[in-house]
Amino acid sequence: MWERIGAMIFKEVRQMARDPSTIAMMFFFPIIQLVIFGYAINNDPRHLPLVVEANDNSAFSRSIVSALRTTGYFDITEVAGSYGAADRMISEGKAQFALTIPTDFARRLVRGERPQLLLTADATDPASTGPAVAAVNEAVAQALARDLIGPLAGRQQGPPPIDLVLHRSYNPEGITSHNTVPGLLAIILSMTMVALTSMSVTRETEQGTMENLLATPLRPVEVMVGKIVPYFLLGFVQVCVVLGFAIVVFEVPFVGSLGLLLAVTLLFTLVSLALGFTISTLVESQVQSMMASMLYLMPSILLSGFAFPYRGMPVWAQWLAELLPPTHYIRLVRGIMLKGWEWPLVLPESGKLVLMLLVLGIIAVRRYRDTVA
Amino acid sequence: MSESLAIAVHVDLTVMPGRICGFLGPNGSGKTTTLRMICGLLIPDAGEGEVLGLDLANQRRAIKHQIGYMTQKFGLFSDLSIAENLEFIARVYRLDRRRERVADTLEKLGLMSRADQLAGKLSGGWKQRLALAAAVMHEPKILLLDEPTAGVDPQARREFWDQIHALAAEGMTVLVSTHYMDEAERCHEIAYIAYGVMLARGTIHEVIARSGLSALQGEGPGADRLAAEIEQQPGVAMAAPFGTPLHVCGPDPAALRAAVQPWADRIRFTPAEPSLEDVFIHLMRGATDNSVEAR
Questions:
Q1: What is the domain extent for residue B235?
Q2: What's the mean pLDDT in B53-78?
Q3: Which of chain B's residues have a Cβ under 8 Å away from the Cβ of A210?
Q4: CATH code for the domain of B92
Q5: A201, A203, A211, best to mutate vs chain B, most B CBs in 10 Å
Q6: Closest listed residue to residue B194, CA positions, set B274, B276, B291, B277
Q7: Closest to B41 (Cβ–Cβ): which among A218, A284, A372?
Q8: What is the ipTM score, two decimals?
């Protein structure tokens, strides 16, 4: 019995060795995971963009800003005097936090009136809010402890001298599902569109039906479009299901335009289909196309901002994420659904998706031949 | 995709309409490659070619409309039924009166009784018939069959050939690649290529006659075991047991006689007709392998 098992093992190992791409993937996967989990993912993100709207140009506000800076949690931009500028930056995704210091802050602090400081957080990504809020509290307390001296030293006893008001915009209750469910749209579409297209095309080659198709007058582009359209419709159904669930079951607020969301979804679906087709022209079997799809999906889930905060990642990982279509699509979905992004705001991210579509389309058409072998 | 195959093909083949031409040659001789080039699945890297007066490099699409190609491996969709497969093909060729055409083809090739059965569940013979139906439904001028009857039982094979002859009778030109001599014998004419060079061409009788081979058949006790020994003799091209008798052939009748003389006392050698197989093996041994297969 052992010899026969040995024969099987020997044969299996030999076959494995003949398929170097599988072996490569088996080593590649754990390495990618190690790198992503070990280096890229950080649940205590630093260098979050914070905009300080200091309407009160006092020593207190200056020392609060410098205390915030020393925490290392924030990259600070200061705007002053233009009311609402901070909010706009949050809405456009340029800042994640805004600290508004009211005009009469110093005066009221000196009077002992417990003035308010408003911290606005972009809660479309609630995960990174918590530690940052704690850091703000800490920094403000430290700054004031240094400044409240002499006649003001008395303020240090009793209730905290200021009142830090936290405003979680777009997701006031900090509900995680408001963040994940829209992101899920990107992940589900990637999974089905990329994996299914690449596998369905490879299947034709693997089963020998491609040779038959190519001997008919079907043009390559006709084969491509014909293969893609059904999956495209399938993707549309998926979008409807996920959106329906998001709104009805998870009660995710939908403040933006449905038409705009569908338009960017269309774009993203096309990118995913083009990617699937491109993969199919690069691999030789269905197994390989499955593995290639997984290789794409894993970083898409981990780096795109779906599972972990994008801003918590080191720069190289952010660059990598920029190359992944879901990163841009997730921003678009969250922007449109939760922040009510309108037409001009979706342009930068959509533009990147269009670029990806062009590049992938060109590769797919170039690689896909209407000849065999 | 990865194996690169350098094949030089120098073939000039003229087949009159309504004729069936057998395309023979050893494995790796470029039969499939030639067929694929003819139907536009491969573009020659160098050189040129013409089919039906159309250029192989630039007019592949026009060629595809006039050619039916039956691949070596079953290439229709196993999860569609016979009728559904044909319907798909009919749409791809944009045939008019689609329903009628599909029904006619089903009828003509005797596929009606299993029209709704999934192609994947069919036996080899039925699959082959379906593949033939799919290749001829658009009424091509040229029908290319790549080893069509491999793995098919004799009865199905005979029926298949009857259908091929019926199609040829309607004016279709047929080119069949095969390894089987009995299939070659069913063709009106044959072309033998080895390593991209056409070595023989004509009807079976012409090919045999032109080979200049003569043969002897030896009968007697132990004749079938002498093959290896006799083949060593000068003047013998090859010797092979055909059941109990021994079949010997060589280019020169007198030399052949002389070569078998030592065994003449126990084995009676009588003149025999050289077979097509003799001719091919003889040709093959004379041809040099210029195909380079990198694996």
A1: 214-273
A2: 87
A3: 75
A4: 3.40.50.300
A5: A211
A6: B291
A7: A372
A8: 0.77
